[in-house]
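call fold(seq) -> C-alpha cells
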Amino acid sequence: MTREQVETEMAQYRTIFTVVRLLDAAQVGGEESVNSFCSCYSYWGKNTPCRNCISRQVLEDHRQRTKLEYMGSEVFQVTAVYREVDGVPCVMELIQKLDGETLIDPENGDRLIDSITSYHTKLYHDALTDSYNRRYFEDALKDKTGPAGVAVLDLDDFKLINDTNGHQAGDMALRTCVDVVRACIRKSDVLIRYGGDEFLLVLPGIERSAFLAKLDRIRAQLHTASVPGYSRLQLSSSIGGVITQPGETVEQAVSRADKLMYQAKNRKNMVVTEDNARDGALSAAGREGHSRQSILIVDDSEMNRAILAEILGSDYNILEATNGKECLAMLEQYGTGIALILLDIVMPVMDGFALAEACHKDGSALPAFIMLTSYEEFDYVKRSMRLGVVDYLVKIDLTADSLTAALEHARDTAEKEKKLRMPSPAPVSLDTFRDRLFLQLYGGLFTDRAVFDRQCVELGVAFKAPRHIVAVGSLQTPDLPTSQLVTLSTGVTRMAAETLPKYRPCRVTAMDLRHFSVLLPLEADEDPEAVLAPILKTAGQILYNYFSTAIYWAVGRPVNDILKISESQHDAFAALPLLHEGEPVAFYHESPNTQLDHRAQVVGQVQQYIRDHLSERLTLNDVAAVFNFSPNYLSQLFAQNSESGFVEFVTATRITAAKELMASTDLKVYEISDKVGFDSAFYFSKVFKKLEGVSPREYMQRMKVSYVDAKDEATV
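ret:
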C-alpha cells in the first residue's frame, strides 16, 4: 500500500474506533509513533514497552491479533493489523474504548465491564492472601525507578509449620503475616506475595530512618501475632531492606534486599539493612564467596543436572556426579566441604539407595541428603528416611520454591539434630503420611492387605480392636467468608483431636471445611449408641462453648474389618440428613422406611430450594453450604435419590422455567436468561438449543405460529 492509501483507510477506521495508529518496527519498540504525539506505550501510562505487545507479534508473523488493555478504570480493545506502507513493514492499531454504548447488549454492558475489571483485579492479586502477586511485580513494578524503601520478608521455618500443623495452618500463617504487615504500612505502600512464604515491600518516598523503624516494627508485630486457630504457633520473619539508589530499578533493589534477607535468615527473627549489615575486611562479593556452600548434584541425566545447577547456581557452588560411585569419590575429595547432596534414585553403576546405604553404614559425619525421584511411592519415602534422607522431592513437582524450601529444611535439620541418619523418620514427617493413610482408608483405596499392614507398622499405627466405627462431625455454620470458615474449621478440628481422645482412643481427620471424621475402636460386645452418644454430646458441648458453633454427629455402622471402614464413613454421611437441633447425634440404620425415605425427602427439599432460587447462583458448593452438606455427599444424594444428577437437575429446571416464561410473557431472550439464572444470554441460548433442538428465538417463533394456528382454528 502507498502512504496515501493507508491514510485513506485510517480515516475510514477513525469513524469507528477511538484511536487509530500506524507504527513501524522501530516505533513499536518505543520511539514516537507516526500518528501520535507520545510513544507507543506511553498511551497506556507505561514507561517501557508492553510485555504482551501484540504489535511486535504481528510484525513477526503478519497475523491479526486482538487483546484487552486496562488503563485506570477503563477497558480498551486493541486490534493490530499488518500493513506494508511503501515497502516498509508497519502495524495499524485500532483501539476501541469498551463501555455500555459500544456493546451490542446494553442491558448487560455494565456487567461485562465489571467482569473485565474484576478479572484484572484477580489477575494481579494473590488468591490466598489478597496481596499483590508476582505477575503484578513483573508487569507494573519491577522497572520503576525513584526513591523508595524496598524490603524482602521471609517467614522463618515455614515448611516446618506446614509439616507440623498442616497446610491449613500454613495458609493461616500467611494470611496473618499479610494482615500484620498491612496494619504497619501506608495506603501508598505495596505488598506483594513474591512466592511461597516470601513477600516484597515497596514503600515509595520513605525516609531512611522511618523505613528502618517500620521494618523493625513489622518484625516485632509478627513475632507477637496470634495465628487464628493455632494459639501455640509463633511466627518470626527474616527481613532484608534497602533504600533505592538514583536510577536503580525496583527489581535491582529487590536483588540487593534479597541478599540481606539471607543474612538475616542465618539468625532468624531479625532485620538486616545496609546500615546494620555485617562489617568486616571482606567486600560484599568476598563475603558472599566466603559463605557460599557447595551442593553436590548426583544424577545420570545431564539435563536434570543443568536445570538444578541453573536454579541453585547463584547461591551455591555446584559440584556434579553422574552416579553413586562418582559421588563417593567426590565425598572423599571434598569431605565436609559439601553441605548437601541432591541424589537421584535411579542411576547406573550405583543407584541412590545403594549410595545412601553405603554412607549410612559408614556412620561418619556426612552431608545432608535430599532424594530426587520420578516415583511418588510411599515405600521410596520410607526407605529414604531410614537411610538418613532429610527430604524427598518428586521431579515432576520440582520448582525453585520447593527446592529452596527443601534446602532450608535440610539446613535446619542439620543444625538441630546433628545426626542426620536416624533409625526412624522424625514424627513431624510421619504425621503427614499418617493423615494420608487414613484418607486412603476412608476412600477404600487399600486393595492389598500386606501393603496396608506394612505401612501401619512403619507409621506406628495399630488397629487392635475387634470392631471400628466412624463418626462424622458436622459444623452447623451460617454462610461465612472462606477465610473465616477456614479458621473456624481448622480450630474445631484441632480441638476435637485434643478433646475426644480424653474420653476414648480415636483418630480425627479433616475431610472438608464443614466435616471431619473420627475413627473409633469398639469392643465386640459394645453397643455403639450407648457408648458413643454421651461422649459425642459432651465433646460437642465443649466445642460449642469454645467456638459458639454447634457440632452435630452422624455415626455409621461398625465394621469388623478395618479395610472396610469406608463403608462406615459412607453410612455416617448418609445419616447427616437425620440431624437436627433436638437430636445432635444420629446413628445410621438400614430401615428403608426411615433412612431412605428421609434421604428422598431431603432431595425433595433441595430440589424445591433450587426451583425457588433459580435466578441466584446455584453451584453444587453453594447449595451444599445452604443445607450444611459436603458437596460430595450432596452429589451422591442426588445420584441415589433422583432421576438426574445435581447439575442436570438445575439445568433442566432452568430450561423448563424459561419455556414457561416464553409462553406466559413477552420478555426478551436476555431477560428470560437473567430471570432463570444463566450468566449470559449466549450461554442460555447454547444450552437451550442443546436440550430443545432449536434456539430460544426459534422456539418462541414456533409458539407464536402455533398460537395463531390455534386461534384460526377456533375462529372457524
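The CA atoms of residues 540 and 667 lie 52 Å apart.
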